[in-house]
Amino acid sequence: MAATPLSRPAFYVYFEDIHELIEVLLSEVEVAMHESAGPWFGGDCDDAASSYGRAREGLRGIAEACVVHGPLFRAVSEAAPLDSRLERAWSKFMTRWDDGVAARIRLEQTAGLIDRSLDAGAIAHALNRLDAALLIEHLGSRGSRRQKKDRAEYVIGIMHTFWHATLYAQVDRGRVPTPKA
């Protein structure tokens, strides 16, 4: 409270408790991150090169959001196992990402851009947990924006390497079956 211009009674006019504040902040950041990832989520399934290029730009947007909001993600993810309400908020946040990524993977599988033998839900879950761990580790602490932007480039490279190798490498080797008729 000391870091805000609000008194404690004024705070409770806007938020029921600190949990609600955290849930609102997490939701607002999620909206910004989804907008950043929008080109991949909503892009055409024209070819694998374009799709994983859009995936990289989406990962860049997500990392840039973490440059600003990384400490919030770290705080929620670290407190979640100790607080059931935060655990539910974090789980819902991650599940929505899993669902969105799995839906996009399935769409690209149907288009023949991603190997149909991959379990879209399991792959989405794994990629998202890897991303979250990297983003929290490298961008979840305090530091200057310049330092975080430099670290973000490193993290984007790692995430994109895993996404590309997992989702699109089969296409690069010409081993993905043709789309269903």
Concise synopsis of the structure shown:
The protein is mostly helical and 181 residues long. Helices cover 77% and strands 0% of the residues.
Give an overview in words:
By secondary structure, this protein is an all-alpha fold. It has one domain (16-172): Orthogonal Bundle (Tetracycline Repressor, domain 2), CATH 1.10.357. The chain has six helices and no strands. It is globular, with a radius of gyration of 18 Å. The model is unreliable at 176-181 (pLDDT under 50).
The name CATH uses for the topology is Tetracycline Repressor, domain 2
Biggest beta sheet summary? none
Helix content: over 70%
Q: CATH class, anyone? A: Mainly Alpha
Q: Tally the helices: what do you get?
A: 6
What is the fourth-level CATH superfamily?
Answer: Tetracycline Repressor, domain 2
The total number of structural domains is: 1
Overall geometric form: globular
Q: Mind telling me the C-alpha Rg?
A: 18 Å
Structural class: mainly alpha
List the secondary-structure elements in sequence, H or E.
HHHHHH
Approximate strand percentage: under 5%
The parts where pLDDT drops under 50 for at least 5 residues are 176-181
The CATH architecture can be named as Orthogonal Bundle
